[in-house]
Amino acid sequence: MTASSPPGCPMSGHTQSLTRHTEQPTNGARTDLIRAQGYEETRALLKEATLTQAGFLAKLAGQPQGGIRPPVLYMQGEEHTEMRRATARYFTPTAVNSYGPMIAALADELIGELHAAGELNLDDLSLRLAVQVASTVVGLTDSRLPGMEKRIEAFVTGNMDSEPGARVKASPLRDTLMGGAVGLFFMLDVKPAIQARRKAPQDDLISYLLERDYSDQEILTECITYATAGMITTREFITLAAYQMLQRPELRAEYVHGTEKERHAILHELLRLDPVVTMLYRRADQDTQVDGKAVPAGSTFALNIQTANADPTVMGEDAEQLCPHRTLPRGVQPQGLAFGDGPHRCPGAFLAIKESDMFLRRLLIWNDLEIVAHPAVTRNEIVKGYELRGLRLRVGAKGKRPQAARV
Ligand code: HEM
């Protein structure tokens, strides 16, 4: 399957991936991991329902003891299908559009804070936005103390590696810190939300889980899943997209002046080039077949999403360049596999793009917005993705009234 890319992308700026990295064998990496080659093979493996989740510390987090139900990310089969079917209503375009006024108000508030302070770190603002938006969907809205975003950040802090088989060094200190972070999140954020919804159910995930008789512990692990899958990822993407556009005035202008469809196309293309989660993993628990090929039980696959997304046989010869108007083969999503595919495909994909766009357009419209400090771009081996920290922005240089760009 070959995409016919238009000769010479009409998009300006020669934007390339910011975070592309050569895959390094991680600490104690397994030599028997099967590395998928290219977009088609990667997608076929993701779509194969019999393969199970092997990433995101599945061995630790995906097999809770004592008959406890695992979070959606690690569920399989009918139980998983039923959970996805029942929770899909929180993520439909209609539901997401109904969050529009809340997202707009929050984005205005955060950008107002930037104006008041003069300069702030964008990665702090994007974390607050992503956490508050996803919390509304989940129902984490009754916290006893502010600062939930910092409590959530703690879940992906530390030098663990989630690649299946990677050596996890025993660290009593890390275990204590993680236990403390989970305990605080439960006491300050999850428990009060459960109590409030037991009294008055709402139209959110926690209320639904209570309806299904989920225990406090099961609700806690589901909330941690949403916190890392939905909040941490969106935060990184917003920071990356802002940074890419701030460095390319023409791209930024095309984004800010574009229609919503055109803006979303730019965001999808930025995400294709820099997928937040670069590696996904799957395992065959029983003998199976993928695309007509036999896969013996015990096979574990490493799926490099960034490489798959830059496959020239699908994305076109200019696959490593940004071109939101590229012609894609039927069935290929503009963001490639950045939201996964198959049964575990990200339910929050539309929400993530919508909230990113609402915030970024409000931010990038300010003509006098400038970079004060470039971010450090590092890797997080728990999430298997990039982190941008310290992107400091200034708006409304001293003595001048802030000016919005003319659109
Ligand atoms: C730019 C932002 C985001 C990115 C890049 C992203 C990426 C992904 C990817 C790649 C997966 C598939 C994991 C796998 O197949 O192993 C996934 C699953 C998931 N995402 Fe997202 N996500 C984003 C935002 C969100 C948001 C906003 C939410 C919810 C509020 C969310 C909730 C989830 C959940 C619950 C799953 C697990 C689904 C399942 O296993 O059935 N994500 N995400």
TrEMBL record:
It comes from the Bacteria. Residues 13-28 have a biased composition (Polar residues). Signal peptide: none annotated. Keywords: Heme, Iron, Metal-binding, Monooxygenase, Oxidoreductase. InterPro entries: Cyt_P450, Cyt_P450_B, Cyt_P450_CS, Cyt_P450_sf. The keyword Heme applies. Residues 1-28 are annotated as: Disordered. Belongs to the cytochrome P450 family. This is Cytochrome P450. It comes from Deinococcus taklimakanensis.
